[in-house]
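Open question from group meeting: does this chain pack into something compact, or does most of it stay loose? Before anyone orders reagents, we agreed to write out a predicted structure and look at it together. Recording both the input and the output here so the notebook holds the full record.
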Amino acid sequence: MQYLGLLICGFAQWHHYSDRFKNLISLDETHKQILIFSIADDLNQRYYALQDALLQYQSHKIIHESLY
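C-alpha cells returned:
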C-alpha cells in the first residue's frame, strides 16, 4: 500500500506541473481508497476536493471512535 501511494504521488506531481490539469491527492484510510481529483486550470475552476475529503475522513474517524 505504501509503494502504491508513492507511485500515485509521483504521478500526481508529474501531472501537477502539466499545463492543463492540476491533481489533488486524498488518501481515505477508512475505506483504503485513493481519490484523484483533476481540476481544469483553463476554466479557472477552484474546487477544494482535498479539503472536502479531509473533512469527510475526520467525520468518519470521529464516528468510528464514538462507536467503539
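Observations to bring back to the group:
The radius of gyration is 14 Å.
The longest helix spans residues 49-67.
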